[in-house]
Design a protein that fits this description.
It is a single chain. The chain has helices at 131-134, 335-344; strands at 26-27, 36-43, 49-55, 60-63, 71-72, 94-99, 105-110, 116-119, 126-128, 138-144, 147-152, 155-159, 167-169, 178-183, 193-197, 200-204, 212-215, 221-228, 234-240, 246-249, 257-258, 270-276, 279-284, 289-292, 299-301, 311-315, 318-322, 330-334, 349-350, 354-355, 366-373, 377-384, 390-399, 402-409, 416-424, 427-435. With 437 residues, the protein is mostly beta strands. The protein has 2 domains: 26-350, Methylamine Dehydrogenase, Chain H; 354-435, Sandwich (Immunoglobulin-like), CATH 2.60.40.3080.
Length: 437
Amino acid sequence: MKSIQRYFLSYIFTVSAANVMNAQWIPTNGPREGLTLSLAASVSNTGDTAIYAGTWNGGVFRTTNKGDNWTEIDGGNWWYIPQDTGFTAKDIPLLATSPNGTGGTCLLAVNSSGHLFHSANGDTNWTTISGNIGMRSVGPIIVNDTIITAGTDSGIFVSSDHGATWTKILNELSTYKVFSLIGTDSGTNYRNFISSTTGGIFVSSNSGTNWRAVNTDILDCYGLTIMHEATGRMNLYGLRSGIYDIFCSTDTGATWTTLNRLDPYTNITVTCLAVHDTIIYFGTDTQGVNFSLNGGTTWTNENSSSPSARTLLVVGPNLFAGGYSVVGSVYRRPLSEMLTRVENKSKQTLSTFFLNQNYPNPFNPSTTISFTIPSRSLVTLKVFDLLGKEVTTIFSKEISAGNHSTQWNASNIASGVYFYRLQSGSFVDIKKLLLLR
């Protein structure tokens, strides 16, 4: 049976201060390079799991026993061109794996200059990928059955021979830099893709062959990741360049909402995202690893008990965090322990007002609007047309704290663009919806 993995990978190059660890996070025995920038995993035909770590100035390391021992496998010539010399040449901010066709693992690494390297058996025998993709700065990589797709600073490239050679796909993304690339289908074979580029957010329904723009305003989205709710709704999360706030879309990238700044931690930098089942995890530069059980409405933060994190990866029952440490730069923690701590022990929950994008959108004739309020209060939800004229008051009443949802039936309303406004005290938020008959 083929084992297909999809990896969330982000470009983060700043070094953060180390947080003090306690017994809840287990420091692994490496890599001893000071900073881990990327993590990836593979499962062999026999069920054995390997985890790979890309480091700052240390190349690539591998563990097959959850980090108890690490082996250096950076035997490649990371200095791809004469200008690639000095400290940054062995920085590996991106790793990806795929089956190599013979029961082993193909390992792909990208250094901080954007150059692509290939190991056909996941070992120290690295090959510099030259030719067309070798002249590009390589970004996100996803594996779709036997096809590997890579985003670059000039569109999309694909490989059908386990990463050895690559072909550029001439399509709507050819002139854009690709920041993020993700398959949205559940399972292992992806047909529907979402990509964030310098031209905005694009979607593809034929495995990346052709693309359609759904948002031309979001030009700086990194680290796309997806959560499928139990209801079947897909939530898309990403990071904004520069400030690295988390923002969310519930309509396949067409409209986005920035999640509120995680009060009281208003000055933290969000560095990476990961999703497992219906739980979202994010790493920060100074406030450790946080997670949300309700789609990002509220977050649990354990502060100094978790590491500063540049990259996150869920492998089996554990969450692995790669960050900065002078001892070992990868830590692990059982997922069950984190959730049990939230349920049974004191916790710090960051509650705030939050208005979700309606779903579905566009809609006909009904749509659901959901929101969260942190305390019991009078809440008013109204709909307005493009001229600011009130169309209807969905409700205006005092309700309890927590998550709420309501349905608006627009059977008697003409097609068009409308706005819905949630108001409670001084809090006001407005979002756009589209009634399309």
